[in-house]
Write a structure and sequence with these properties.
Number of strands: 14
Number of helices: 13
CATH architecture of the largest domain: 3-Layer(aba) Sandwich
Distance between the termini: 16 Å
Radius of gyration: 22 Å
Order of helices and strands: EHEEEHEHHEHEHEEHEHEHEHEEHHH
Strand order of the largest sheet: 3-4-2-1-5-6-7-8
Low-confidence stretches: none
CATH topology of the largest domain: Rossmann fold
Helix content: 25-40%
Strand content: 15-25%
Largest sheet: 8 strands, mixed
Number of domains: 2
Shape: globular
CATH class of the largest domain: Alpha Beta
Mean pLDDT: 93
CATH superfamily of the largest domain: Glycogen Phosphorylase B
Length: 388
């Protein structure tokens, strides 16, 4: 099948971690034998546009996936919350340039209504094939989208041949926000391939300390302050325990001050940004994964941790709920601080009773490449049938 993937954000030299799960999915489809092309339309501000805007998409071959980057000026669209409209304006020229090189596609798969999904649906005639859109944005449920963006979301849902969400929770929210009666599928995010690799014996835990790990951007919504305070309360009189936090972001300084105020410098470490390979190494050297997010669309870090065999403690924040139903997962209500502390205290005594191999195998079976590609292929077949 000839598949065109249109991500709304994607890895670039300036931001290599952006949209990596879109790339993972594209590479998994290519590995399964499909002819996969990716085109990412990136908007630059007027200030940064010099040297980036291109008349033709810039081509790269990345791990078997034909990848095109099309750069354009935003003209303040991001500032005015009109990214969907600006990408829609750029889209016809970009897609014509691409199709002059690559020809026609069997199906187009866009990720997120903001803005690739909206642009693809509005310009569906130019594409000449069915369009499937997968939604990922958690802000839809946090009322962080404008009334205009709600209209764009509804247009995307109604206009796509098939609309997909990465969790049941997000599906419910999309239906509520748009009032649609349209069928929406749920296909979870794919487990990144690095976490599917076989685990060598020498990579397993060697620390005598009980080691917890947390991974993600250091932002208020991730509630690392909640986690650190709970960790401090549970282990105030325990030396042989530590918490390693992988990630960076605007809350770093605040968290550093909190760690110092609680005298946790020896127990809680802010490791900064870590590559996926480094995150995997840190997880394999840990005993338990912690998550305390207020809201998530899915919760990729949880399945990454469980693919490394770790039991996890996470919050029922919407998108993570389904992940937390698995063996090895311990779910706590978002604002129940006492329950969160109790879960940490309990797992400190029971973590050895978990079968790490079983946690890993269950995760690989549900979220690994084979399972997700099969779900995508079924969705493509349905969209192709509906589109005829």
């Amino acid at each position: 099948m000839r598949i065109l993937i249109l991500p709304s954000w994607y890895p670039t030299p300036e931001n290599p971690g952006s949209g990596v799960f879109f790339r993972d999915q594209a590479e998994a489809l290519a590995e399964a034998g499909h002819d996969v092309t990716v085109m990412y339309i990136q908007l630059y501000s007027i200030k940064n546009v010099i040297g980036h805007v291109s008349k033709e998409p810039q081509f790269k071959e990345i791990n078997g996936v034909k990848t095109y980057y099309y750069y354009a000026c935003s003209y303040g669209a991001d500032r005015r919350m009109r990214v969907c409209e600006r990408v829609r304006e750029v889209f016809p020229k970009a897609i014509k340039s691409l199709m002059d090189k690559e020809g026609n596609f069997d199906i187009v798969h866009a990720h997120s209504f903001r803005a690739a999904g909206y642009a693809a649906v509005v310009n569906k005639r130019l594409l000449g094939c069915p369009v499937i859109v997968t939604e990922h944005i958690s802000s839809i449920g946090n009322d962080e989208i404008t009334s205009l963006e709600k209209k764009h979301l509804k247009t995307t849902v109604e206009g796509a041949n098939l609309f997909v969400c990465v969790s049941e929770n997000l599906k419910t929210i999309v239906k509520e926000k748009t009032g649609t009666n349209k069928k929406i599928l749920v296909i979870p995010n794919i487990l990144p391939s690095v976490f599917s690799e076989a685990i060598a014996e020498e990579e397993e835990i060697k620390s005598d300390k009980l080691r917890f790990i947390a991974v993600g951007s250091l932002r208020e919504i991730k509630r690392y302050d909640f986690m650190i305070n709970a960790f401090a309360d549970v282990f105030s009189n325990c030396r042989d325990v530590e918490l390693r936090i992988c990630g960076d972001g605007p809350a770093r300084d605040k968290l550093k001050k909190l760690i110092e105020a609680l005298s946790l410098e020896d127990k809680v470490k802010l490791l900064g940004y870590q590559s996926r390979e480094d995150v995997r190494k840190q997880m394999l050297m840990s005993h338990v994964m912690l998550q305390a997010s207020k809201s998530e669309t899915f919760g990729v870090v949880l399945i990454e941790a469980m693919a490394c065999g770790l039991p996890v403690i996470g919050t029922r924040n919407g998108g993570s709920n389904e992940v937390l139903e698995a063996y090895g997962a311990n779910a706590v209500d978002v604002d129940d601080y006492d329950a969160y502390c109790e879960a940490i205290k309990e797992i400190a005594h029971t973590f050895k009773s978990y079968n790490r191999k079983l946690i890993r195998n269950n995760t690989l079976y549900k979220y690994g490449k084979k399972s997700i590609v099969e779900l995508l292929e079924e969705a493509y077949k349905e969209a192709l049938t509906f589109g005829k």
